[in-house]
Amino acid sequence: MLRTGTAASPDTVPVRLTVGGVSKHFGGIAAIKDVGFVVREHEFVAVLGPSGSGKTTLFRCIAGLLKPDNGVIKIDDDDIQALHGRLRRRIAVVFQQFNLVSRLNALDNVLAGRLGYVPAWRGLVRRFSREDRLFALECLERVGLLDKALQRADTLSGGQQQRVAIARALCQRPSLIIADEPVASLDPNAGAGVLELLREIARSGSVGVICSLHQVHFARSYADRIVGLSRGNAIIDVATAQFDDHAYQRLYASGTSSRPEQIT
Predict the structure, then answer these.
(1) Could you tell me if 187 and 179 are in contact, meaning their C-beta atoms sit under 8 angstroms apart?
(2) Nearest of 252, 251, 254, 228 to residue 239 by alpha carbon
(3) How far apart (Å, rounded) are the C-alpha atoms in residues 134 and 5?
(4) Angle at 216 between CA 12 and CA 169, to 5 degrees
(5) In this structure, which topology does domain 14-253 adopt according to CATH?
(6) Contact at 8 Å (CB) between 93 and 180?
(7) How far, in Å, CA of 244 to CA of 99, rounded?
(8) pTM
(9) Other CB atoms within 10 A of residue 138 CB
(10) Is 230 helix (H, G, I), strand (E, B) or coil?
């Protein structure tokens, strides 16, 4: 695992995400202001901040769903605004509400991760190659759900559904996984399992993972680095070991909502 401040030089590790001086306004109000940081290969970065701090806007910009007013966002070395069509498959998103097709089985949901690799007509009729199907099964095995491959998504538990969503993300062979509040709908045990899985994927694969969280104790337990947003500004960017009580107080002291529970 690579952390800020370890002996390994971060300059030798590929950068998967670059956020440089990014700002976004809505009706003259700044949602995020001059935000900048990087996510490297093998790194699990948690983004914390009170409600209204700009996390959702930032993640929508990184995913290419919003265009920043200023600054640059790069995946690998490519400006995200220049990524079109199949190049977008380098960004995989894991959503809070899973976004699975409930009537399809787990395998078919995971195969949706291959849509960026096949002609549109094949995706519509779900005609995937044997190689694609085998890879999708490998992704299900990676998340511990190979035995659920033919089970309908709506019969799975919440934690299992989120694991299927992670397998779908892996099936894209992405450079970056964006996990937007991936454990908000899960019980603590299932949530811990999902974050453990995302951390393991970051450590062992060629991807970076950026994850927005509300639970500070989860960020402290699983993230390599913590980026803290407050009122649209990135006021903290530290190795997790450096996110102490002072950093916590600084991040949430001027927040727009009640502080999250801090479990140590």
Answers:
(1) no
(2) 228
(3) 40
(4) 55
(5) Rossmann fold (3.40.50)
(6) yes
(7) 35
(8) 0.89
(9) 14
(10) strand
Percent of the chain with pLDDT over 70: 87
- Which of 9, 44, 93 minimizes the C-alpha distance to 204? 44
Which structure tokens are listed for 20?
């440089």
Please give the Cα distance from 33 to 107 (Å, whole number): 41
Of the candidates 208, 193, 223, which has an alpha carbon nearest to the alpha carbon of residue 3? 223
Token output for 118: 């096949």
State which amino acid sits at residue 121.
Answer: W
**Packing angle of the helix pair 130-142, 158-171 (nearest 10 deg):** 130
pLDDT in tens, 103-120: 999 999 999 999 876 666
Determine the Cα angle at 257 with ends 256 and 259, to 5°. Answer: 120
User: Where do we find the tokens 């894209």?
Assistant: 172
Question: Tokens 């998967």 label which residue?
Answer: 16
Distance of CA 18 to the CA centre of its chain: 14
